[in-house]
């Protein structure tokens, strides 16, 4: 999926319209995530009806108010609006955390042709490797809501970030947790070594008498 957008500029749907325009930013945002390409238009009545459902769906999977950890999910709006003003107006109906392509970006039309978009709205769901997981998820989202993400997650074979975090579990913390044990073992080993050395000393008459009369 990352390869599909390398060299492109993705815009955040926030107040400042921040841009993700470097390879590092694109990779960090898209890698190991399911991507939802939402093809729509503010002039489309069905798109207007679907927008609140999509917004609620996305928020319940990514907003910390609803979930402890955000789903590995990215929403990208591919505008098929007839004007930039219309696109800007429709973006206000979409989640603040979604991304979009600028109106002047010709890649919007390229993607529309690539995925053979004819009817709106349409949500193409992609695996991290850019292969199509679901060609049109609009009906699925409307019927199942956030529950359909589990099916996508299994189908996409995502690497669970919780698992990754466990695998990479802060080695410094692990060391700090085991330090007392290791220090205790080391201390015991030193004492044992000293005792062994003391026991290995030649037996003198004085030490022999000490043992007998102790």
Characteristic terms for this protein:
globular, alpha/beta, 50% helix, Glutaredoxin, seven-stranded mixed β-sheet, 214 residues
Q: Radius of gyration in whole Å, from Cα?
A: 30 Å
Q: Secondary-structure element order, as H and E?
A: HEEHEHEHEHEEHHHHH
Q: What overall geometry do the principal axes of the alpha carbons give? A: globular
Low-pLDDT windows of residues: 163-178, 188-201
Mean pLDDT: 83
Report the CATH topology name of the largest domain.
Answer: Glutaredoxin
Task: Describe the sheet with the most strands.
Answer: 7 strands, mixed
What portion of residues belong to β-strands?
Answer: 5-15%
- Broad CATH class of the largest domain: Alpha Beta
Organism: Labeo rohita (Indian major carp)
Domain Thioredoxin-like fold: 32-132
Protein name: Nucleoredoxin 1
Pfam families: Thioredoxin_8
